[in-house]
Write a structure and sequence with these properties.
Layout lengths: L12 H11 L3 H9 L5 E2 H8 L3 H13 L3 E6 L2 E6 L2 H20 L3 H4 L15
Antiparallel strand pairs: 1-3, 2-3
Helix pairs in contact: 3-4
Length: 127
């Protein structure tokens, strides 16, 4: 017989994982992740690069910050954001690679998928 512990006050890891993955269920937040993967950026830099309004970027950043995907740093009037854990970028990159591989197997890569890569000013590696 297994010794059961009372876990009623704990959130199961699969639930936390699912909640975290919902952060990246929005293409704009994935673009933000890709943009800041190689270093921190200010809210205005993110907005300008992605062609979004400051208020829209701020909303996305709040969601990402609240779930622990990114961390802020305040410098005077500016707030800079960086990835909280590089493994979040690596996971996203693996999913992206897997999607492209599966689409290539079906011959759909060039027909249905555009290369919407966001330039982060760095390499495409997973540093």
């Amino acid at each position: 017989m297994h010794n059961k512990k009372d876990h009623s006050d704990k959130i199961p890891l699969f639930d936390l994982h699912a909640q975290f993955c919902r952060v990246f269920a929005d293409s704009k937040r994935l673009q933000i992740l890709w943009l800041i993967k190689s270093g921190e950026r200010s809210v205005s830099e993110i907005a300008e690069t992605l062609g979004l309004s400051l208020s829209n970027v701020s909303q996305h950043l709040r969601i990402m910050r609240d779930r622990g995907a990114i961390r802020p740093r305040r410098d005077g009037r500016h707030v800079y954001y960086r990835i909280a854990n590089q493994k979040f970028v690596e996971g996203s990159a693996l999913v992206r690679e897997g999607l492209l591989e599966e689409l290539a197997k079906r011959g759909q890569v060039s027909d249905q998928v555009s290369d919407d890569q966001v330039s982060d000013g760095g390499s495409d590696g997973y540093e």
